[in-house]
Amino acid sequence: MTMAQDFDLVIIGGGIIGAWALHQAVERYPHWKILLIDRYRVGDGATSHSAGVLLATGKSERERRLAGQSARFYKALRDQFSIRTTQAPVYWLADEVFLPDIRRAVVDFDVQPAEVSEAVLGARLGSRLNVGPTECLLSGGLAESYEPPLMARMLISRSLASANVSCIEGLGVRHIGRTGNGVRLTLADGANVHARRTLVATGPWTNESPFKAIASEHGLRVKKVVALHIDGLAAPDAPALFLPQSDAYLMPLPARNQWLFSFRCDEWDVRPRKHELEINNHDVQIAKATLGQYLPDLVGLCRGGRVFCDSYSPDGEPLVTLDHSFNVVFAGAGSGAGFRLAPGIANEALELIVSACPDRRATPEPLPACVDGSK
Ligand SMILES: Cc1cc2nc3c(=O)[nH]c(=O)nc-3n(C[C@H](O)[C@H](O)[C@H](O)COP(=O)(O)OP(=O)(O)OC[C@H]3O[C@@H](n4cnc5c(N)ncnc54)[C@H](O)[C@@H]3O)c2cc1C
Q1: Could you give the C-alpha distances from 183 to 9, 30, 174, 329, in angstroms and in order?
Q2: Measured by CB atoms within 10 angstroms of the end CB, which terminus of the chain is less buried, N or C?
Q3: Are 270 and 226 a contacting pair, CB within 8 Å?
Q4: In 10 A of CB 115, how many CB atoms?
């Protein structure tokens, strides 16, 4: 490929958001010449560490819309390619005052008082289960876990079946400059690429050159994200337990003979460098404090886990925005939920890209009816 080439769309970043954006762009604008660039290997950023747990909930109306749409996109892909996932019926444990928040947050399902005793549910979760005097147990929803790097690579490799799509890995975008009809991107090897439309989906690297100004303008920060692994066989129909007050959940991973315990880590402004980020004693103590309160028998079974970081917006919602100074659309700030919201984020980004730079050659292919939410 000669590096002076022109592209209808260049996507910078092959994480789950860039991958879904590529997939949707190829489906909707099959005639576009598209380039995906990643400074490392596609699917190797925050996406490669993600627990890949998906449950359609949202704090705001926009987040609920993104969650519902994303769930439909994932389901359509899962059914089309017979992708194997773990599915777990969800129980919720929270103080009664949180019930209205939980009911408001759920999308496409209801939550009801759980018709199960603490002892029976505890046995299915592998521990005694403690429910406080003002707390209640609810049931509703199905949590599903995917392998995020495999999903990203699958979406990208399928898109590469089109002769109009190409991908560069192992070369980062170092510089970006406006041109009369788009932007000129300079890669780490000095080559230049011209893009009529550009999507920046650089995850936690957005806080670094050359896109630092986008992160500063929108107050994006990078936070460590940790989930512990818990030894123990989970039955194929094992449930998940969500603890919204503690911002934590327990998800069975029967294929790995493990459970996953996700909880909130408050270590901010870390760098997205794999070998700098480790699970430390403080992380383990936070996790064990919550487990000790609700599922005490799991405390001694924690062993290792997964750790990296993610880009967070000030309000904890993903960001999709047109950056006028760079003349690019940015999509990211997954804020710890970027996997489950990625297809919706990508769809919003693509719509913004096309409204900023319309395609006068053709009308786009419509979204498939199964994902556009119209039925
Ligand atoms: C431990 C952990 C568990 C998580 N669990 C969940 C979960 O269960 N459910 C959920 O929904 N979310 C979860 N998340 C969050 C989710 O993984 C992220 O929100 C999501 O992966 C972010 O995707 P992204 O595409 O924005 O970024 P990334 O996956 O980081 O992709 C960005 C890409 O951009 C590339 N890049 C960066 N700079 C440049 C440049 N200058 N030029 C070219 N390429 C560049 C990088 O190499 C990278 O591949 C978890 C995250 C972690 C760390």
Answers
A1: 10, 22, 13, 11
A2: C
A3: no
A4: 8
13 lines ligand 1 (CB under 6 A): yes
Q: What phi, psi does 301 have (nearest 5°)?
A: -105, 0
pLDDT along the chain (375 residues), means of 10: 76 98 97 97 97 96 98 96 95 96 95 95 96 96 97 98 98 94 95 97 98 97 97 90 96 94 96 94 97 97 96 98 94 97 98 91 68 52
Does the beta carbon of 205 lie inside 6 Å of ligand 1?
A: yes
- Centre of ligand 1 to C-alpha 147, Å, is 13
Ligand 1 mutation target, pool 38, 146, 185, most atoms within 8 A of CB = 38
Which domains occur in the chain, in start order?
Answer: 6-48+148-219+315-356 (3.50.50.60), 88-143+221-312 (3.30.9.10)
Cβ of 224 less than 6 Å from ligand 1: no
Contacts with 235 (C-beta within 8 Å, 6 or more apart), sequence order: 124, 252, 254
Residue type, 273: R
**pTM value surpassing 0.85:** yes
